[in-house]
Write a structure and sequence with these properties.
With about 210 residues, the protein is α/β, with parallel strands linked by helices. It has a single domain, classed as P-loop containing nucleotide triphosphate hydrolases (Rossmann fold, 3-Layer(aba) Sandwich). It has eight helices and six strands. The strands form two sheets. It has a four-stranded mixed sheet. Helix 6 packs across helix 7. It is globular and about 40 Å long. It binds adenosine-5'-triphosphate and magnesium ion (MG). The site of magnesium ion (MG) has 5 residues, from helix 1.
């Protein structure tokens, strides 16, 4: 789920997709790549309070001493839905990656998210990654691991213009990543346009009588 427009419904649609796919009997995991951790919150986790000893996506993809992904998978209340939570620490990935690139870190940044989950073989039928509203290293790493991309947008002029700029920038960046040895496995890009329900009545505010 991507788009650099905030509030375009990425997290909401990710959560509903997770539930639908789980109800259809598949095992799914939702990965929260957003430091805001909204998808985690929707599944009952407040990582800054509930996971003080680690156990978030950051712990599995950090450059120094990453933990096995198995250690950060959390079970949620609904059957068949697991989650890997995000938290504010994910911001560190955006700052640490340039340093790791300068030090020519063995594991390239765009492979970190995909490589990490690849260590949990044949465990899930579907993996849904909820990206932050940016086109940073985390989003590019998620794109690199994805087999399909869903771009959510409000059906309004400025939002659609923003989505076009995003798609243009994304294709340019992915070309750079592919030239640097990244494997782009995404085979499909879909756009989801959704509509807020119309207001029932205009709201009129009258000055109150003194
Ligand atoms: N189909 C919908 N109809 C009405 N409201 C919706 C719909 N989908 C999402 N919303 C509302 O829009 C707001 C933003 O949604 P959401 O948090 O999913 O966006 P987001 O793209 O994940 O935002 P961010 O980029 O900040 O992570 C929320 O208040 C959510 O309840
Ligand atoms: Mg979100």
């Amino acid at each position: 789920m991507i788009n650099f427009k905030g509030g375009s419904g990425k997290t909401t649609i990710a959560a509903h997709l997770l539930q639908k796919i789980a109800l259809d009997g598949y095992r799914v995991v939702g990965i929260d790549l957003d430091p805001q951790a909204s998808l985690s919150a929707l599944h009952g986790f407040q990582p800054e309070f509930d996971l003080l000893d680690g156990g978030t996506l950051y712990n599995a993809i950090r450059y120094d001493d990453p933990v096995p992904p198995r250690d950060v998978i959390q079970q949620t209340y609904p059957i068949n839905i697991d989650t890997i939570t995000g938290n504010l620490n994910l911001m560190k990935v955006e700052h640490d990656t340039p340093r790791a690139l300068m030090q020519r870190h063995a594991n390239l940044f765009f492979a970190r998210v995909g490589d990490s989950l690849a260590q949990v073989p044949d465990h899930y039928d579907v993996v849904i990654r909820d990206c932050p509203p940016t086109l940073g290293y985390l989003t590019m790493s998620a794109l690199s691991a994805a087999t399909a991309v869903l771009v959510t947008a409000h059906p309004q002029k400025l939002d659609v213009m923003s989505m076009c700029q995003f798609l243009l920038m994304m294709s340019n960046l992915l070309r750079v990543v592919a030239n640097a040895g990244g494997v782009m496995s995404s085979r499909a890009t879909s756009r989801v346009l959704w509509q807020l329900p119309p207001l029932r009545k205009p709201c009129r505010v009258r000055p109150s009588a003194q």
